[in-house]
Batch of 3 targets.
Target 1
Amino acid sequence: MDLMYLLELGVNGALSGLMYSLVAMGIVLIYKSSSVPNLAQGALTMVGAYVVLAYSNGAGLPVWAAIPLAMLTMMGLGLGIERVALRRLAGRPVVMILMMTLGLDIFLRAVTLVIGGGTARPLKIGISDEPLFLGPLLLNRAYVAGAAVALVLFGVFVLFFRTRRGVVLRAIADDYMASWSVGISVERGVALSWALSSLVATAAGVLWGSIQGVDQSLSLLLLKGITVAVLGGMDSLGGAILAGIGLGAFEAVTSGILDPMLGGGTRELVVALVLILTIMIRPHGLFGRHDIERL
């Protein structure tokens, strides 16, 4: 197989992997404040794209105005989810909160299916379909734009977690009861993490919706996002970025080699295998924190 072709696959795969990292960052943001994997992140990504469509196609707003308005709307939704569904579960067993996020995922997918239907709808955000030439390589412009957005948001969140509010969120994740005992508002901290996660979900939904259209399939990005989050470490934003690059490149090159031989469909298989092997071999991920409990 042509080496240049594999290189092109790897570079484009790495760029798409950074877009997977957007979904993973939403998962990490909530995990860093509540130590709970958010199984509704894929559905939030899908809903964010539908909200942009509602503002741009339904309300007639230009897309440059619809996107920030949709981000604010989704932040409000994140705050509402924490207030209505999750606040009363604070301090309860983690499995109860995990099941709540799974139920939320099912609920959001059902609501958007009823309202938006099952037909994919295009979302144009002004990115050309023409490839971008980097020497002999042909790059997908949408992947380049998505990678740039992922890196910018990563930088913003790294700075955020160095602020006093960011340190408070980490303290909440470490110990709910200790945080309460020193006067930290655990509820407000978790609500903020859900708002930020919903904002990131909107960015991911817009970018992926512009590539593949807006429909129920956007919620399936949860598999890619949670694989990146687990591989990089559930509490590591930097790990999400590096794992996204690695997973995207590995997925693209592997499927490029295997698809012609097996008839296609190997992308999801590769991602599932990476997730399973990571959990079996290194459950805390490549860059996650390994807490040791002493009895």
Note: The CA atoms of residues 175 and 295 lie 17 Å apart.
Target 2
Amino acid sequence: MNNETQIKELVKEKYAAIAEQSKDQNSSSCCGATSSCCGDEVYNIMADDYTKMEGYNPDADLGLGCGLPTEFAKMKAGDTVIDLGSGAGNDAFIARRVVGDQGKVLGIDFTEAMISRARANAEKLQYNNVEFRLGDIDSMPVTANYADVIVSNCVLNLVPNKHKVFSEIYRVLKPGAHFSISDIVLEGALPAKWRDVAEFYAGCVSGAVQKQVYLEMITDAGFKNISLQKEKEIIIPDDILGNYLSTEEIAEYKQGKTKITSITLYAEKPAKDERKCCEPGSGCC
């Protein structure tokens, strides 16, 4: 599972299946899609409750997030917001409630079924300033210096080249603009088995990197004023662990120092980029 193309195809296949189901169906079926295995799935045990947030639309909530980035994103009326990995549109519609009629929200997702569902939801809500584009978030179909705010909810884990995503986020944000991203990070090493299990990659677990590495990627991309807005530990129930690990392996995992954590991070693109990236030998291009 180390080929970027294979990983992307795996994720696309899994999330295309999820797009065809309701939140309740995703919660009661393994891997978020039709399957014969039992227990709650990895996707859903990470999700936070959106139902009390203004702009919430149940048709757009598939229970796939691991935080509430829109709650912390410091959006304001008139802003242009991008939602990376927009799914059925949940975060995009909440963002639209904040930015209002004068703002604009753009959702980007590389799964055609998710884009179709999000567009249908937007049409039902009669939002003419919410757009959904098909595309990879590591190569966004967006011009540079476009957005005031970028949000994303438990998506970067699914992308093999996270460095490239942060570089793209930097490119499309306006100078002085910022992001608020919820994602899964690690402290300690995952069981080796999980790195080879498709469901755990598509469920954001085996695609996670060490917390410190994640923060270093953000710094390397040029962002400043990085702050941790929220953090919570993800506890995977035994009935899920039992699908992948033996009883002895489960005990070893629980006694170890591995910690799976949902974090929400804020960072700003400097108003002036002083890295001189275009100069020969700069090393930051």
Note: The chain has one domain: 4-234+255-268.
Target 3
Amino acid sequence: MQKVLIAGILMGLFFSCNSTSTSKKENQYRIGQKSITYTDQSRNRPVVTEIWYPTNDTISQNQIPSRRKELFKSIDTKKNASIPEDKFPLLLVSHGTGGNRFSLTWFIEKMVKEGYIVVSIDHYGNSTFNKLPREFVKWWERAIDMQYALTNVLKDPLVGSKIDVSKIGGVGFSLGGYTNIALAGGYVDRNHHEGNNDDRAMPPEFPKTDEIIDFDTDSLIVSSYNMYKDQVKDDRIKAFFVMAPAIGFGFHSEKQTDKITAPIFIVAGKGDTNTPIKSNALHYHNLIKTSSLHLFNEHVNHYVFLNESTEFGKKIAPIITTDHPEVNRKEIHQKTVDLAIDFFNQHL
């Protein structure tokens, strides 16, 4: 009886210490932010990059507020803050179709406070303020963007030397989820046409254009695919966390995922109407031997993984900002982050 009691006390102290340690970590780190644009000369392609990192600097509360009305809630950061003398794991973040490098700041904020450096980019031609029809279907080039950003961030004079290169992870939402599966070694087949044609329909974010483009035969799209489709895997990235991944229709064989050896955690909502889980999250999980899967309930839809909305955002863009009445976006975010922290603690 005494041994059991002592064991119980020790376990209580263990969990108490862990809780205290985590609390101190969250309180210790604030968020530094650096903006930079790299240019991939080989593709004549800008890679607009945001670097978020732990800092102990004080963040001023007297910052001049933006006059522009925002759709989503922002986070507090300090531009070009100092970074502690330490080594930190790195996460690379890829946004969804028509999104941008700020689309997942809810996730970025919590991971930086946990002690991660986080890099997010705008994918050229497929971001909020830069939409080009052909770039919406050059899915594979997104992986090349992430590789290029990683190579340059590792050389960055502020944070490069502070990155633990043995602990690099990938994170993505929607098309960014596919991007990470590609980086892990998943090879999409753009010519595969079997299954539900609705899956191949252009997303609602697709830009309006008067140009007639045959996406199956267009020379620029086809040449890009032939050039880059076999260059998507990046062995520097050791683990991948993907939310509501898209492009499942482009994967029909285990041969397309047999080069994936890194662990992949997939999270999605059963109520996803943009990327239905049967042909995306579940489909990927069945094809990828190293994957784990967590599904939220049937009320959880696709855009729940975007930032929390402002009241203005709910009025202007209800489709991407409003959830089912029984869904609390903040709670989904917290559960998702908890899953991500556990996953990366185990695999990085």
Note: The mean pLDDT is 89.
